[in-house]
Design brief:
The structure is a single chain. Helices cover about 35% and strands about 25% of the residues. The chain is built from three helices and five strands. A three-stranded antiparallel sheet has the order 3-4-5. The longest helix has 16 residues, at about 5-20. The relative contact order is 0.18.
Length: about 100
């Protein structure tokens, strides 16, 4: 049975994306967050401040960028989210 806590975090994250609320977005992650880029592992990164800077840059360079959810799932305390993000050049890349 999915954890209410994980479902709540997922809802908060998606709402923060919709509202473009950087602090709310960042608050959804552990300070030692590690992100592995599925297509370009060289673009992987670690740490909350790096996460904050990445989203700030995305929203600053493309104020109308889209965040498109492909799928979500919650299993226990794990959240799975597949999404695409539109960058300044108009490309949609996995997030």
């Amino acid at each position: 049975m999915p954890s209410d806590d994980a479902k709540t975090v997922l809802r908060r994250y998606l709402k923060a994306q919709e509202d473009r609320d950087l602090e709310a977005l960042v608050s959804c992650w552990h300070p030692d967050v590690e992100v592995t880029h599925p297509i370009r592992p060289d673009l992987s990164w670690r740490g909350l401040e790096t996460y904050r800077q990445a989203w700030a840059r995305i929203w600053e360079t493309n104020p109308r960028s889209r965040f498109e959810v492909v799928s979500t799932a919650v299993a226990g305390n794990r959240i799975y989210l597949e999404a695409l993000v539109e960058h300044a050049d108009g490309t949609m890349v996995p997030n």
